[in-house]
Amino acid sequence: MVSLPGRDSLSDADDRTVASRAADGDIRAFEILMRRYGPLMRAYAARIVRPADADDVVQDTFVTAWQELPDLENPAVVRSWLTTIVTHKSIDRLRAGRDHESIDDHDIHDPADGPADVASASSLDEALSLALSSLPEDQRRCWVLREIAGYGYSEIAEQLDLPVTTVRGLLVRSRKTLVREMEAWR
Q1: What is the distance between the alpha carbons of residues 112 and 19, in angstroms, rounded to a whole number?
Q2: What's the CATH number for 11-101?
Q3: What tens digit of pLDDT does each residue of 132-173 get?
Q4: pLDDT one-digit tens code per residue, 9-39
Q5: Using CA atoms, how far apart are residues 77 and 73, in angstroms rounded to an integer?
Q6: Quick one: fold of 113-186?
Q7: What stretches of 82-165 adopt beta strand conformation (E)?
């Protein structure tokens, strides 16, 4: 089979295939998983720990994943499995006595924005970070999994070991609080 320049059949493969190959020791397949899910894991970790610690958490996550991937029973669920690991590593980091400052210290602004746009966006980021940090831990974790990681209710319930009805209630309360706290930004 002739491969086209810029095309890589393994890169285009589904999670089950890539994770299975990585579990068999294929380093290239594991690199694809890292590229595929690294940004999501970093964004998720940065919502739990200080953004400065997020890279370390993600690195620890992928080291653990490489070691434990052969034991993953269903390679198709590699994304949620990685999120579980990053959640545990983030919590371990917090328990180690490292306080998280802002939930969102990283700059996500377009360099083409003018100073007024950047200042307004920074203020909005700070307000959202403050509102998120004021949420109870379970509400914040549910909100981050739903809004940042894009998980469904049942995936969140499985991830946090909660009933789906509890997840729904936590999300409703977190959204109500965030709407109230962010009212000035509407």
Answers
A1: 39
A2: 1.10.1740.10
A3: 778 888 888 888 778 877 778 988 888 778 899 999 999 999
A4: 888 889 999 999 999 999 999 999 999 999 9
A5: 9
A6: Arc Repressor Mutant, subunit A (1.10.10)
A7: none
